[in-house]
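Re: [ENG-882] Designed sequences occasionally contain unexpected residues at chain ends

Forwarding the minimal case from QA. Structure tokens:
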């Protein structure tokens, strides 16, 4: 399925009634999910995020822009943020199975409808720009709403779609539509109320930098090139746009940044650089805030970054990495940071059917003991593997923090991180084994009223059966591979935890042998003898290697008790 994220910014952040009327129209469109509504009183601006299939996103965005044009009068608008329209910007972001070029074509479809049907001037920017000089949003929005009358009278600023006369756009303003990479709107809080000082820091870090002056002082004469154009001294952060402003709502100044490519400048890199430049100017960073949603990996990488700065193991759980990131970046300074509401992957998964691994230990045991055939031995085998590698990962983390072993923290952090990857894969396989069983049941329930139905039913049964073989085979392979980490921890880890490694080996071997039972029982229903022979041969080899490795680990463990 193709997925596009749409992040319209509307010029209303104070009247909750108006905001709700505008966001409500998004939820009337099938195939679209409203993820986040983030209003700002001082900026008088709301960032709205929704995601869905491309055609549905275009329809939802059109309805939102239409409703905003009916409810927001730009001639009466004021706010801290640069803006030029009731719906100021409407970027589209490729999320899954869709190219930037395809996303740009949908942005063009939206812009044509907005211009022709709503009579709103539309400018395309970034990857949707039809003119190179319009790629930069700051250039497109220069002069803001107040300068729109002059802009529309200039032939070179004729809109890509919509009217080129100010009278028709006096109330709605203009809308900029784009296709762009995932952009993170990120504000860093300062212990000052000075917009001037905040702007100085913003100019230090933003890619564009500041106008070059003689002597490098604010009072120095502006340096120009041979053509008379101002020269600029670039800032320290690539792919970053930034300004300083004062937020009355919070009583502090902020550095407001757009991180346009987080693979170039990450959240944590931007935070630390602002903190460094602020300190030089006698100002302290007190925290930060994310506007809208953020990809999970951006937060996890921040968590790892700050743990490494502390020389601590990064091989900890996802939730622990998030907690470290939130505290280190001060994302909870101005209000609670709720991962389930701010991380895009968590928002997309919200409302999905509960997984087995999300149950409490007691509920999981009760579900297993019930008359339902699933979860069965396959899922339990996978979970035994989870427990096995979790014990080894615990040993790695304890060893990383062991007194007197400070010079070995990185060694054990690497082991712990590998352990977390195996743990996460086995957790996924707990539910996937049950899903594979359900696929077989679904195939057997298919109709068999005629020859064609019988043929299709048989094909689906074979397909589902092979999948139900592949999953426990993956459990076997993953659990066996995890035993190498378990062995390393028994040999080199904290000697006080050697029995934890030993128990981990017992669990991992159980996972391998239990999963192999499920492989074999599902193989008996297949007539494809060559396929079955190959699978059984692979399974027997893995089981034998796991049993031998378990014996080695137990021998090491017993020798240290």
């Amino acid at each position: 399925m193709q997925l596009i994220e749409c992040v319209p910014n509307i010029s209303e952040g104070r009247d909750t009634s108006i905001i709700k009327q505008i966001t409500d129209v998004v939820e009337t469109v099938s195939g679209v999910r409203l993820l986040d509504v983030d209003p700002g009183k001082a900026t008088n601006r709301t960032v709205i995020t929704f995601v869905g299939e491309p055609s549905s996103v275009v329809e939802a965005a059109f309805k939102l822009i239409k409703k905003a044009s009916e409810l927001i009068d730009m001639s009466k608008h004021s706010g801290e943020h640069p803006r030029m329209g009731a719906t100021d910007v409407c970027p589209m972001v490729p999320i899954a199975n869709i190219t930037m070029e395809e996303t740009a074509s949908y942005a063009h479809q939206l812009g044509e409808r907005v211009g022709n049907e709503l009579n709103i001037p539309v400018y395309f920017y970034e990857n949707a720009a039809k003119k190179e000089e319009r790629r930069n949003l700051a250039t497109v929005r220069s002069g803001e709403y107040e300068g729109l009358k002059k802009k529309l009278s200039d032939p070179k600023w004729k809109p890509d779609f919509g009217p080129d006369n100010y009278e028709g756009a006096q109330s709605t303003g203009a809308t900029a539509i784009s296709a762009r990479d995932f952009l993170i709107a990120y504000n860093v809080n300062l212990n000052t109320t000075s917009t001037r000082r905040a702007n100085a820091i913003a100019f230090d870090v933003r890619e564009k930098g500041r106008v070059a002056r003689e002597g490098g002082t604010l009072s120095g004469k502006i340096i120009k090139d041979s053509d008379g154009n101002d020269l600029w001294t670039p800032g320290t952060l690539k792919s970053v746009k930034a300004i300083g402003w004062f937020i009355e709502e919070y009583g502090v100044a902020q550095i407001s940044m757009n991180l346009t490519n987080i693979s170039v400048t990450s959240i944590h890199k931007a935070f630390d650089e602002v903190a460094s430049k602020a300190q030089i100017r006698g100002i302290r960073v007190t925290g930060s805030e994310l506007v809208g949603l953020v990809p999970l990996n951006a937060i996890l990488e921040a968590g790892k970054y700050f743990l490494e700065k502390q020389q601590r193991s990064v091989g900890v759980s996802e939730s622990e990495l998030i907690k470290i990131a939130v505290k280190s970046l001060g994302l909870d300074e101005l209000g609670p940071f709720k991962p389930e509401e701010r991380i895009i992957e968590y928002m997309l998964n919200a409302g999905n059917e509960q997984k087995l691994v999300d149950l409490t230990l007691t509920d999981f045991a009760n579900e297993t003991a019930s008359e339902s055939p699933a979860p069965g031995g396959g899922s339990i085998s996978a979970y035994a593997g989870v427990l096995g590698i979790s014990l080894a990962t615990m040993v790695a983390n304890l060893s990383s923090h062991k007194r007197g072993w400070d010079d070995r923290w990185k060694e054990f952090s690497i082991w712990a991180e590998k352990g977390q990857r195996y743990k996460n894969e086995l957790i996924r396989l707990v539910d996937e084994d049950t899903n594979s069983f359900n696929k077989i049941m679904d195939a057997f329930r298919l109709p068999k009223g005629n020859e064609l139905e019988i043929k299709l039913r048989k094909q689906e049964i074979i397909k589902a059966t092979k999948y139900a073989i592949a999953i426990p085979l993956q459990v076997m392979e993953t659990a066996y591979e995890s035993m190498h980490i378990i062995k390393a921890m028994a040999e080199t880890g904290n000697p006080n935890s050697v029995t934890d490694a030993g128990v981990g080996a017992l669990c991992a071997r159980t996972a391998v042998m239990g999963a192999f039972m499920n492989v074999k029982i599902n193989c008996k229903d297949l007539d494809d003898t060559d396929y079955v022979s190959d699978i059984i041969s692979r399974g027997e080899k893995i089981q034998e290697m796991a049993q031998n490795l378990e014996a080695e680990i137990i021998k090491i463990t017993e020798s240290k008790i």
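QA comment: On inspection the terminal residues look reasonable. The chain has three domains: 3-179, 184-349, 356-560. Proposing we downgrade this to a documentation issue.
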